[in-house]
Amino acid sequence: AFTPDYGRRLLAEHFGVLTLDGFGLAGRHAAVSAAGAVLHYLRETQRGGLSHLDGISFYQQQQWMVLDSVTVRNLELVEPLFAGEKDATLLATIDRTRTAMGARLLKTWLLRPSLDRAEIEARLDAVEELKRDTIARGELERALARVQDLERLLSRITLGTASPRDLLGLAASLEPLPAIRVVLGRLAAARLASLREGADELRDVAERIVRAIDPESPANPADGGVIRRGYHPELDELRHLSANSKSHIAQIETRERARTGIASLKVRFNNIFGYYIEVSKPNLQLVPGNYERKQTLVNAERFTTAELKDYERRVLEAEERILELERALFAQVRADVAGQGARIRRTAAALAELDVLRNLAALAADHRYTRPSFTAGGEMQVIGGRHPVIERLAERDRAERFVPNDLYLNDSSDLILILTGPNMGGKSTYLRQAALISILGQMGGFVPAGTVRLPLVDRIFTRIGASDNLARGRSTFLVEMTEAAAILHTATPRSLILLDEIGRGTATFDGLAIAWAAVEHIHARTRAKTLFATHYHELTELADHLP
Q1: 469: pLDDT strictly greater than 60
Q2: Contacts of 200 (CB under 8 A, 6+ apart)
Q3: Distance between CA 127 and CA 133 in Å, rounded?
Q4: Quick one: which H or E segment has residue 382?
Q5: Alpha-carbon gap, residue 146 to 106, rounded angstroms
Q6: Which residues have C-beta within 8 Å of that of residue 16, sequence separation ≥ 6?
Q7: With bands split at pLDDT 50, 70 and 90, how would you rate the model's confidence at 454?
Q8: 206: three-class secondary structure by DSSP
Q9: Neighbour order of strands in the sheet with 300-304
Q10: 219, 162 in Cβ contact below 8 A?
Q11: pTM for the complete prediction?
């Protein structure tokens, strides 16, 4: 499944092309192998249509700021370091999305901040306009709150597992689209105009669903009652026959009582014998000759007639035909909607991005975030910066106000900042704050500060706190040295390094020597902007030795 030839053949067959070069996969053998294996796995496990997978694209890690698992954990971007503190993450702090697609995209942007200056500025322009236009922002929020998870609904529809309620949910989610497009039409930002074009109203899809599917449909289509009355003449006729069976049987019963003179005659139905006429023993001499005996009981006899048998056949056939027709009609509607999968997916992507941009604008408006500017010269200047998570938690708990602080780094005279101070003095907070501001800015969001100038950071490295991995034979010191070595070997001049307490897991002078050497290495070779918090006050002497 992982061979390039198999992957290439499988992908070409799936996308209906002769070559994958048009997707930018020429010479990308490892990428083709990986994508082919994924498609092979989906075919083996889903056993359904994969038509919603209608494109493939190649990307490189260099398109985004790299955040490895250690950094994601140390900065508490999506998971808290300590259980039970779900609100203590950056994602929880900034997530005000109104759609499931938007929530997923926000997390993606958070873990993959952009390195494309034009893309960042386009997002910032949109956020700035939405921040300024409170009315438009509110209208979009109310409209987006009515949109269900279009991506998940579409997956179920194309895989053939969607229920009638899934289709109705899709139709209901398309209702706010005209209003959303009207609001976007009033806004000038280029990215918002692009999203307006991408948000297809899909009126034909919604009308197809609403015309065919009963709004009171059961969750399981096998239960019947899925197709709306008036949609299919034959189905309506069969339903009429099935629904009026009781009144028709009552008419037969009344007529037969009058014809035979048997006042106690009953016409009944059960699952074993079907429809039958029941006559008590004392009235058996009045039974007409065209009655056929069906069953003998202690106190009565059961009969049938040619008319009753014919009616029974028609009713039972009608009920079977109703279920058969409903299944076929529902499958056809589902297939028709799946055929519009590409349009639905484009709309879902546009709504997800709109939700994220609106989310970032609301965050900026409510918490005094400002737009960052990006510098080509490598300067990082934060005036009145605040830690977004701690500030929010302090507001929630009505604790002390977070005290804003400043930061300045550049590529020459202010490359490394040695930070000393007592425990609980705020060193780790200051380090993390710098990283979170960079991430928020490169996501395309406003940041918690008064004035901010940022460089484009290609990667953030963190070495924060003491931990061990004894299961893999790694002591606290070994984990620390491994992480430090990874930083020193892979950081570039465009990286941001956060070091907190290097060398604490060994003897004092050994630890000081390691920390001293790490700073010298970064200064002489790596040249990455670095914030280094330490209890080794001796490290401040480096300011006298290194420019």
Answers
A1: no
A2: 177, 343, 346, 347
A3: 10
A4: strand 380-385
A5: 19
A6: none
A7: very high
A8: helix
A9: 266-270, 274-280, 300-304, 292-296
A10: no
A11: 0.84
